Amino acid sequence: MLGYYFHLALRSLKRNKLLTALMVLAIGLGIGASMTMITVLHVMTSDPLPARSAQLFTPHLDPLPLDYKQHGDSPDASDNLTWRDAMALLKAHRGVRQAAMAGGSLLVHPAQTGLQPFYVDGRFATADIFAMFGVPFERGQGWSAADDAARARVVVLSETLNRKLFGNADSIGQRVRLGDGDYRVVGVTTDWRPQPMFYGDMSAQQFADPDQYFLPLSVAVDLKLDINGNRSSWVKAVDHGMLTSDGMSWLQFWVQLDGSQQVADYRRFLLDYSAEQKALGRFQRPPTNAKLYSLMGWLSHENLVPNDVRLQMWLALGFLFVCMTNIVALLLAKFLRRSGEISVRRALGARRRDVFLQLGVESALIGVAGGLLGLLIAQLGLWSIRRRPDDYAHLAQMDVSMLLGTIALAMGVSVAAGLLPAWRACRVAPALQLKTL
Prior knowledge:
- There is one protein chain.
- This protein is an alpha+beta fold.
- It has 14 helices and 12 strands.
- It has helices at 2-15, 17-44, 83-92, 129-133, 145-150, 159-166, 217-222, 260-279, 295-302, 307-337, 339-347, 352-386, 400-426, 430-436, and strands spanning 56-60, 81-82, 97-109, 118-125, 137-140, 154-158, 175-178, 181-189, 213-216, 232-233, 248-256, 291-294.
- It has a 6-stranded mixed barrel with strand order 3-4-9-6-8-7.
- Helix 1 (2-15) packs across helix 12, helix 10 runs parallel beside helix 13 (400-426) and helix 12 (352-386) runs antiparallel to helix 13 (400-426).
- The longest helix has 35 residues, at 352-386.
């Protein structure tokens, strides 16, 4: 029976080509505009580490004095930890794994002649960062906690930077000059690129290029290497020597906790630690300000999606609603114009639900055609977004789920838009219509 309805729908659509084209175009434009912005929002709010995000948490303390004034446009000073607090959490070792880290930019001095020095961004971190985040290695491995304690001059390179410096040669054990120091290569990662870069400072670009190197945090502090990101101070003088000051926050901290009991225990530990620091006179704010964010909770808290992206998405959905309204009007006019044909079918024994199903199949066909057109328009829209200078622009790619979602949305919209016209056409009294034939 569906095959017969499909045949009837095709004949009907061919009989009114202009009307059919208008409806397909309206659905295509609405779906294309909506799916473009929904795709952008989807990739910007996706889980950067799906296999590990449930075990990753970031603790936050509040060491700010009571008279500290947060400026409206400035990053939140309590987003990061002070050196003293980060080292205390590391020493307590209450999680399965934990790591403190900060971003940095260093000048690379290639050994090859003809290759000029260049700057690259990387990460200063403690040893657990590799195992905790599951950073994949192409060769070698990360450094150990003993290397952290010994201030070992070691480095882990990304695959891209390693290829640029060493080509296809094995670089493990080789020396690399970064800034004013030489470092021994102990590992090479694949181009690990979680998006967004959840573990970095939230005032930095979260959708930019991935880290090209990893250095021990202790070495970076000893050598007073340049630190990227938000450094908020509530003391008077700030210079490199103040990185270990109790009055400046600049470190990100992540901990791995397996299970709800460990999460509850760690949350209690943070509250106790804050209460202890307040009792010592170091913290002035209530201990209950201490928080423990899950990975996705932290991204939601930081609200990485720009307001203009959300506004554009709602505008696109509003445009889709306008298109749907027009589709309803066009389908209603089309179906009611066929009242005579429907009445004949009813008089020959067709039930209302048969007519309703026939018109529903016709609506679905329009939706499939509109969805395919919308898919092309969405791809064009995503291509135009990738041309923009925003750091998230390169993420504007449609994956399989969004591809299927586009078709499903188009069919859903068209069928939903066809429900009222189909129901209204089914309510036509056959006797009255047959008298007019």
